[in-house]
Write a structure and sequence with these properties.
elongated, 45% helix, mainly alpha, 6 helices
């Protein structure tokens, strides 16, 4: 559909307004008419129709139509045309394209982990026990500081029977 038949829609809403019985229904028909008038570009006619004091839910619809009327009367300015940047100091642009610094200062608290390839012969499940076994094999006698000990590794306490009366 190229252009909706606004004149027919406006006539239909006016005819429906004549047939309604309640004031609320008549106000609803006038809001529809104002909407059609906004689509037609008849801003003054739409504004005159929206001057009425609409009630309840219809008041919020009236506010929406008045906001649309305001936007149609005062459209936002078009976005500015894109501007090509002007490079007045080409040496700064050339410096920005320079290679990264190859030397980094030594930081004794930062160590890059050493990669050691491992050959996995068969898939296995890895749990905390397997990790601790691996750590024990690779770092003998150093332990793992900061990790809580496993309760299974601690010797069991002897159970004694205590009778209370």
């Amino acid at each position: 559909m190229e252009e909706p038949p606004w004149d027919e829609a406006l006539a239909a809403w006016r005819e429906l307004e004549e047939r309604v019985e309640s004031g609320t229904e008549a106000q609803m028909m006038r809001l529809h008419q104002a909407n059609v008038l906004l689509f037609q570009g008849e801003l003054d006619s739409a504004e005159a129709m929206l001057q009425e004091n609409f009630q309840g839910v219809l008041a919020s619809q009236q506010d929406r139509l008045l906001a649309r009327l305001e936007r149609l009367r005062n459209p936002p300015p078009p976005p500015p045309e894109p501007v090509e940047p002007v490079v007045e100091e080409p040496e700064l642009v050339a410096a920005a394209d320079a290679a990264p610094v190859e030397y980094l200062p030594y930081d004794p608290y930062f160590r890059v982990p050493e990669f050691r390839p491992v050959t996995i012969l068969e898939p296995t499940q890895v749990g905390s026990e397997a990790v601790m076994d691996y750590v024990g094999e690779t770092v003998p006698e150093q332990g793992t500081p900061g990790l809580a000990s496993d309760p299974q590794d601690e010797p069991a306490e002897e159970e004694t029977d205590v009778i209370t009366e």
